[in-house]
Amino acid sequence: AQTVTQSQPEMSVQEAETVTLSCTYDTSESDYYLFWYKQPPSRQMILVIRQEAYKQQNATENRFSVNFQKAAKSFSLKISDSQLGDAAMYFCAVAQGSYDKVIFGPGTSLSVIP
Amino acid sequence: DSGVTQTPKHLITATGQRVTLRCSPRSGDLSVYWYQQSLDQGLQFLIQYYNGEERAKGNILERFSAQQFPDLHSELNLSSLELGDSALYFCASSLWEQGDTQYFGPGTRLTVL
Of A20, A39, A47, B73, whose CB neighbour count within 10 A is largest? Predict the structure, then answer.
């Protein structure tokens, strides 16, 4: 069965500092996709970044980057120059290649301290 | 704004009742997904439709059903509602059937009293 684990229920970071959110997953598929979604207090789910498992290069999107370690089944999110607007719940998710059933982790609540 | 719309935004109803949640995907997207997010739980995948056909099923109760219409909008029907069905219900859409990014709607908050 496909599972996603986020071992840090809560994290905090000083404004302008860097923080890394952890995610590990387990899948038997060779073809899959990984995502980080952000859910601010508005409860809207917002895509932060996406990584294809077949790509060795780590995805980046402005201040957001990932460290994808396929052998270790690890997919961490690094947020640089943290801003107050980054405060949210962050969900790691894995989508299998066969059917697009996305499995979400339990989430990490990130607080940004001014 | 993701381009995915959901109506209504809020819904308050009583136990035993039946409700219908509606979702319009982004223009051009063929896949629609439904998720349930309870207050103390993460996102639970319910069901996926692609171009009108059911493609994947998750933890969807028998009291729940969904369909995708020819114009690609989708409806999630919840019947014999229980207190535990109170949750935020998200719809998401993507262009293709697999491996594509899902864009989420704003959600429908269902409260069962």
Answer: A39
- Give the mean model confidence (pLDDT) for residues B44-65: 91
Confidence band, pLDDT 50/70/90 cuts, at residue B98:
low
**pLDDT level of residue A99 (50, 70, 90 thresholds):** low
For B40, name the nearest residue in chain A, comparing CA atoms only. A106
Compare CB distances from A99 to B43, B98, B103 and report the shortest one's residue: B98
Higher pLDDT, B100 or A6: A6
Contact B42 A52 (CB under 8 A): no
- To the nearest whole Å, the CA of B76 is away from the closest chain A CA by 17
State which residue of chain A sits closest to B106, comparing Cα positions: A44
Nearest chain A CA: its distance from B70 CA (Å): 21
